[in-house]
Amino acid sequence: MKLLVFALLLVPFIARVHGVQTFWPAAIPYAVRTPYLNTWIGTAGSDSSKDWPVFWDGAVTGWILYIQVDGKTYTLFGNNNLPSNYSVTAGIVVETELTPTQTIQVIEAGPMNVTLTFLSPVNPSDLVRQSLPFSYLAVNFTSTDGQPHDIQLYSDISGEWLSGNRGQEMTWSPPTNTGDIVYHQLRLQTSSAFQENTHQAEDGVAYFAMGLEPTRNITLQTCEDTVCREEFILAAGVNSNDNNSTNRAINSLWPVFPISVNLGSVSSVDQPIVWIIGYVRDPNINYTLSGNSASLRPYYTANFSTTESALEFFVSDFNNSLAAATALDADLHNAASTVSPDGKLYDMLSLATRQVFSSLEITAPYSSGQADDATRIFMKDLARTQRVTPVETLYAALPMLLYFNNASLVKPLLLPLLEQQNVSLSQYLCAAKDLGESFPEVNGPVLLSQEGIEQTGNMLIAALAHARYSQDTSLLHDYYALFKSWAQYLTTDNNALYPHDQTSIDDGSTSPNSTNLAVKGIFAIQAMAEISQLVGQTNDYQQFSSTASSFMQTWQSLALSSGNETVLITYGGQPASWVLPYNLYVQTLLGFNLLNQTLFDQLTVTYGQWIDSSFEGYKYGLPIESASTSPGNVAWNAFIAATVTNNTVRDQLLDSLWNYASSNATSTPFLVWYDVETGSCINGSMSALGGLFAPFLRR
Ligand SMILES: *[C@@H]1O[C@H](CO)[C@@H](O)[C@H](O)[C@H]1NC(C)=O
Ligand SMILES: *[C@@H]1O[C@H](CO)[C@@H](O)[C@H](O)[C@H]1NC(C)=O
Ligand SMILES: *[C@@H]1O[C@H](CO)[C@@H](O)[C@H](O)[C@H]1NC(C)=O
Ligand SMILES: *[C@@H]1O[C@H](CO)[C@@H](O)[C@H](O)[C@H]1NC(C)=O
Ligand SMILES: *[C@@H]1O[C@H](CO)[C@@H](O)[C@H](O)[C@H]1NC(C)=O
Ligand SMILES: *[C@@H]1O[C@H](CO)[C@@H](O)[C@H](O)[C@H]1NC(C)=O
Ligand SMILES: *[C@@H]1O[C@H](CO)[C@@H](O)[C@H](O)[C@H]1NC(C)=O
Ligand SMILES: *[C@@H]1O[C@H](CO)[C@@H](O)[C@H](O)[C@H]1NC(C)=O
Ligand SMILES: *[C@@H]1O[C@H](CO)[C@@H](O)[C@H](O)[C@H]1NC(C)=O
Ligand SMILES: *[C@@H]1O[C@H](CO)[C@@H](O)[C@H](O)[C@H]1NC(C)=O
Ligand SMILES: *[C@@H]1O[C@H](CO)[C@@H](O)[C@H](O)[C@H]1NC(C)=O
Ligand SMILES: *[C@@H]1O[C@H](CO)[C@@H](O)[C@H](O)[C@H]1NC(C)=O
């Protein structure tokens, strides 16, 4: 019996790997590992086999892959910009499959069936591996006629990985052979520490590498793009006749850095050919606390004394990494199948997981004076601004961060926020909204009193959630006074119950008495009660708990439509105007008892009607408010899906989000804000997509 269930669960997974493609995101990840190693390929309107990969914002990051089969050259990706007499053909993409760690494309190149595996590892509980800023491209193939063919492969990258300004001067080293690996290394002539230009960093070193296999004929060269590519096409490999000039502008005769492999006459390979692409920033964060600045280094530097040794490790780790990634994919697939057997939640997690991890910079332990030898993680407001650890985004991503619970990702994300604000309780009466607006410079907390309830609520809820899911109460003890003063800000003058002078983080509205904001504030007071209980402060527990209950009773009498079938936007608001009350998910996440379950049942019926295609039918999910111009948000819809009490309605909500994720109208990456009428992307943070894990976390 058990075996049968197991077999049934596995069937869809296997079927999808070699099945007909059903999921059509507008852009698919190629190398998505850090805020600055974040390259995609658009799928809208064309075949990716002849397009340039792009940085998340759409700027080309030159990277091409050719295969030569019996003297005929095909692109597998990358826009071949050689004159037409070179007769290069684009391969035919026959299948694209996504897993949380991999993008797999099957491309036909004449008689060769080629598989590209872009592996961006996700290692939540191994911060050394997680922080290595490298990604794999593995290529293997089988001939469709069973015959051997003469095969050469070629891939190069350009200097476009180094700056958003393609006129910048770059420099490079001749190809290096360590005995174990070969690699190219390129950087800006003058790097600017911790600076960005058009979203790309200005202080990194790009690497392009391959492990040496004694039996493989590997050649490297540095030269102008057309020179190297023509050389490969005509000579079936590159030569070591490097251009001895080692600096010029990125866009001046486009220097490129190929690694080519001549496999001779073969019909398939046992081991894939693996290129490694990297973008290394060391130090990666400039951390300022109380006026003292420190350059923090990436976490892996605690284990590797040089970048070269880290790169050698990453190259040698491919088989382990692929096995670990495949296991993580299977775990997530099984978890997602229990919620959404049609595979649509898994499809979305297959984009979101890499994206959220890629927004994190993980730093090596450092003593700040406030906290000793601590690991700190900083989240970029990736794809939107340069804000550092936006607190509302941390809140949106909490479900994913808590899901990878052994990893304890929440503590190192909260620590910098807490230690920065703990320096002055009187200055930080309410919680800051982020740690500055110039990532990767961490300049300090930005306090905005108009977001006081929002961000204070987020911090208290995140702190309790972390303690509950990790059983680690150390932050609660260390920052108890700060948490208590924040909770007092919420209770004083009924601040959280009757929000005023507050600005919505969702639509900028400034209407007083926002019901969705108030309910977050009230849950946060309850969170403080439970924090007090966990640290043994019984009086505080009783006081905050009784305030939360009494506030919630008032909230219920003011916030609901007459039949309790919707939550009004503001107390006593127009009966026809409703808000998507995604903050109700906090009760589900933390197992609170403040709201009557009957209310959840009533709201579930309403959302079930709205989402049902035979009724009103929001095809792409629910907007944040009733207004017709109101956009949709993936995380907030996922919070509601996790909150509703009917699994059919939950599945319908998740399926509607999938309709957006799979709509290939525009070629932007999967971002959290979108138009609910058309399913096209608006913008929003990648990290917030961690909210898609909400259905897994219910207490
Ligand atoms: C867009 O998605 C549809 C399915 O919804 C698919 O048939 C089509 O091939 C996709 N187009 C591209 C360019 O991926
Ligand atoms: C293509 O044409 C250019 C310019 O006429 C010439 O230099 C080059 O050798 C030609 N290449 C091939 C493969 O014929
Ligand atoms: C190409 O490879 C894919 C994946 O391994 C396989 O599903 C497909 O049948 C192959 N195509 C041919 C023509 O052999
Ligand atoms: C290589 O090809 C085989 C057969 O098509 C496939 O199952 C395997 O996953 C491919 N990829 C890698 C990285 O080995
Ligand atoms: C070497 O670089 C110079 C520009 O610095 C360029 O004029 C020349 O064509 C390059 N030669 C090769 C072989 O790439
Ligand atoms: C290696 O490949 C290059 C480029 O195709 C070729 O010129 C050379 O003869 C090959 N070397 C061996 C030992 O096969
Ligand atoms: C680069 O310098 C080496 C050594 O001086 C020389 O052999 C080679 O021909 C030079 N390459 C070019 C493209 O000029
Ligand atoms: C780090 O940030 C501080 C404060 O903004 C600044 O004074 C310092 O120059 C920065 N350090 C570097 C290396 O950029
Ligand atoms: C908020 O709602 C309460 C209760 O309905 C009301 O007394 C108060 O005037 C409202 N505040 C504002 C600023 O409208
Ligand atoms: C609406 O909810 C309130 C508070 O839970 C409850 O007192 C009231 O009876 C409910 N009304 C309906 C029509 O269910
Ligand atoms: C929940 O509300 C329903 C109807 O509104 C009521 O009958 C029930 O007693 C309430 N349950 C609790 C625990 O308050
Ligand atoms: C769950 O929702 C579906 C769709 O709205 C509905 O058909 C079904 O009756 C509901 N189930 C329960 C137990 O309320």
From TrEMBL:
Gene3D superfamilies: 1.50.10.10. The keyword Signal applies. InterPro entries: 6-hairpin_glycosidase_sf, 6hp_glycosidase-like_sf, Glutaminase_GtaA, GtaA_central, GtaA_N. Residues 346-694 form the Glutaminase A central domain. Residues 101-334 form the Glutaminase A N-terminal domain. It comes from Rhodofomes roseus. Pfam families: DUF5127, GtaA_6_Hairpin. It comes from the Eukaryota. Residues 1-19 form the signal peptide. The keyword Secreted does not apply. Keywords: Signal. PANTHER family: GLUTAMINASE A-RELATED (PTHR31987), PUTATIVE (AFU_ORTHOLOGUE AFUA_6G09910)-RELATED (PTHR31987:SF14). This is DUF1793-domain-containing protein.
